[in-house]
Amino acid sequence: MTQAVRHEEMRARNLEVVLGAVSRGGPLTRAALAEVTGLTKSTVSKLVGDLVDAGLLAETGPARAGERGRPGVEVVLSGERVAALGLEINVDYLAARVLDLTGAVRCAARRERDNRGSRPKKVLGELQALATEVLAEAHRLGLEVAGAALAVSGPVGDGVVFSAPNLGWQDVRAADLLRLPVPVELDNEANLAALGELWYGDGERDFLYVSGEVGIGAGLVVNGTLYSGATGLAGELGHVVVTPDGPACRCGGNGCLETYAGQEALLAAGNSPSLPALLAALGRGDRVARDACASAGRALGIALTSAVNLLDLDRIVLGGVFTQLYPWLSGPVSEVLTTRLGGLRGAPPAMSASRLGGDAATLGAAGRVIHRVLADPAPFLTRAQEA
Amino acid sequence: MTQAVRHEEMRARNLEVVLGAVSRGGPLTRAALAEVTGLTKSTVSKLVGDLVDAGLLAETGPARAGERGRPGVEVVLSGERVAALGLEINVDYLAARVLDLTGAVRCAARRERDNRGSRPKKVLGELQALATEVLAEAHRLGLEVAGAALAVSGPVGDGVVFSAPNLGWQDVRAADLLRLPVPVELDNEANLAALGELWYGDGERDFLYVSGEVGIGAGLVVNGTLYSGATGLAGELGHVVVTPDGPACRCGGNGCLETYAGQEALLAAGNSPSLPALLAALGRGDRVARDACASAGRALGIALTSAVNLLDLDRIVLGGVFTQLYPWLSGPVSEVLTTRLGGLRGAPPAMSASRLGGDAATLGAAGRVIHRVLADPAPFLTRAQEA
User: Fold this and answer.
1) Sign (positive/negative) of CA torsion A269, A274, A236, A211?
2) Other beta carbons less than 10 A from residue A14's beta carbon
3) Of B27, B58, B78, which residue sits at a domain end?
């Protein structure tokens, strides 16, 4: 390794350290940053100056001519330059949302449409149009969008949607089909929504996020990190076995959770043509609808019992359509968890409905890009210097 | 923080860095260590010298007077001074095993006894006698035993065995009851056996280790690290639900895996009074015994399907009594996994019988102490200097 390369690496690492410290603990003065990071004050001053120039950090308080960099001024993440785009293809809508570095939503768009059994090219084309609009708006706001992440329900990997039961898609190269002027990555909706809850939700660092849709996914967050498994396919809660000889599941098995608590099973049992219809029936106390939710809740309780026994969870967040169905689902779920887990664990895990609801996935998607910028800010400094 | 404290911390960290580099990649020369660690050659020389003096590192090749520390000599972990004690209370035996820093077994003892429904004080008294013998032998070999870890089947925490179904124990303060001249920590047998497989087994870094006993536990190893969950109770595979309305389980639930594939269920279904009797019946092709294994295997396949869907496992190691029963269990397990996981994952995870068998838990227990020494060697240097 040459001296110059080593110096570049050291500088990249120190930039990350300073930016990370401000991100976690800001606002901070340069002196406080030196103490927190163990770097010298002059190194910190240089790094902070470069990060301010690149638009990643900003100084707080009124700016006065000639006073930039004076010791008492605090720095925070800047919301004025770098941003990220979160995208989602949901069964009922397409969504795009731009977050700046501080996590504030700067612009967003959403288009209601029924994506069931849709053609991938058509849907991705519409999403591309929506994303392009939002990117133009971000540009007008002076934001530089560093990248995009797209959330799709179901197992994904290497830019390919292996199976999206909501949409009826199989093996769709979604990341390639979406042409945008920024790099696009693809991830599972439940994983991204779990990250959304982690970064922009209640501040919990350990939980299982459950996403109820046509399929049922889950994102496991352990000590502030997403657990994604050997091949990125962890969290397939929908195929946890509830009854081995239960109804046939599209996965080839029988009696998977999805056959009891997936949206299609729920609507069929609740004798409702759509989720709004089911919610309306529940609202007026319809017996069939309530029984459908209760039995879906008991099945979810069984699958979550297995999950808690394996993963030792102490918090479960119900998202997707389960957020709206929470008042009718949570009782039966809790009952099963209490009966089955009380003996070994004393108390069942805490459970709540997602506070972010349908926004969790796009927030997590944009957040993933933002966290990547924070973890490796050096390229943005180079760009700022070249500009 | 004073300058002196900061210096001590830096030194402790550098000792760990050097020892860790040798542990992972040794033998290494001092020059190679400097390159790997990024420390200066003179710092490395000083640290290596201290670690050699403390008996944690040794130089390879013939020692020649006056030549210690010459540049070409390589250093390795030393097996001559620091060691660790692994203990296990199994349903059929007590075991103690001393490993040196290189992972070599230096002395061991095992006492066959039936620990079913045993009095904790009596069993721990016998284990104490066995451990004392082995510690005396280690002392004769010139080894300094840094600590002990005790493996017990079932959920444990803070030195307490919450429930040991093998033994019929409830809330036993095992770590306190065992009086030894070294610190004793307590952990779950499946977790420690999983670590034994990780450190002294096939070299895999991602797998689920399943321990079949009266209860059925599991240890999940992810990227070389044990996943232990929010409260250290992860891996309760025995209470993953196989059939919601199945036989009553001692946990208060119904149809848990344990009620189908736990040792008692297996022996009852196989019409055998003991595991050796079951193995003998299997060996002579007894139909009832084989059917018992096949249906336990199918139940295990169901529970593992749920585990794979949640955790995205690509390797499963069957340990405990499942190691001996592997020839009769593995077919039915594989069949279920292939049917239920083929659709989503293409192929089921690889499966094998534990190669370490009954030794995995004591190896993992001693290994845990050894890894703690390697992660924080500074106290051993202080002791060596005071001696």
Assistant:
1) negative
2) 17
3) B78
The CATH number for B159's domain is 3.30.420.40
A304 within 8 A of A265, measured Cβ to Cβ = no
Count of domains observed in chain A: 3
User: B181 and B45: one domain?
Assistant: no
pLDDT tens for chain B, residues 1 to 387 = 466 667 788 888 899 999 999 998 889 999 999 988 888 899 999 999 999 999 999 998 755 555 555 557 899 999 999 999 999 999 889 999 999 999 999 999 999 998 888 999 999 999 999 999 999 999 999 999 999 999 998 888 888 998 887 788 989 999 889 999 999 999 999 999 999 999 999 889 999 999 998 889 999 999 899 998 888 889 999 999 999 999 999 888 999 999 999 999 999 999 999 999 999 999 999 999 999 999 999 999 999 999 999 999 999 999 999 999 999 999 999 999 999 998 878 889 999 999 998 899 999 999 999 999 999 998 888 766 655
| Contact between chains at B241 and A306 (C-beta distance less than 8 A) | yes
CATH number at residue B43: 1.10.10.10
Q: Do B191 and B136 share a domain, yes or no?
A: yes
Q: Which residues of B touch A295 (CB under 8 A)?
A: none
Residue B274 to residue A241: CA distance in whole angstroms: 31
- Residue A155: which of B229, B315, B344 has the nearest Cβ? B344
The answer on A333 and A244 residing in a single domain is yes
Residues of A in contact with B163 (CB under 8 A): 344
Domain of residue B160: give its range. 82-195+361-374
User: Which residues does chain B have within 8 Å of residue A227's beta carbon, measured at their own beta carbons?
Assistant: 222, 227, 311
Supply angle C-alpha A72, A77, A82, rounded to 5. Answer: 140
The answer to whether the CB of A85 falls within 8 A of the CB of A145 is yes
Interface ipTM: 0.88
Looking at the structure, do residues A234 and A179 belong to the same domain, yes or no?
Answer: no
* Residue reference for tokens 């768009």: A109
Task: Determine which of B1, B170, B210, B311 to mutate to test the interface with A (most A C-beta atoms within 10 Å).
Answer: B311
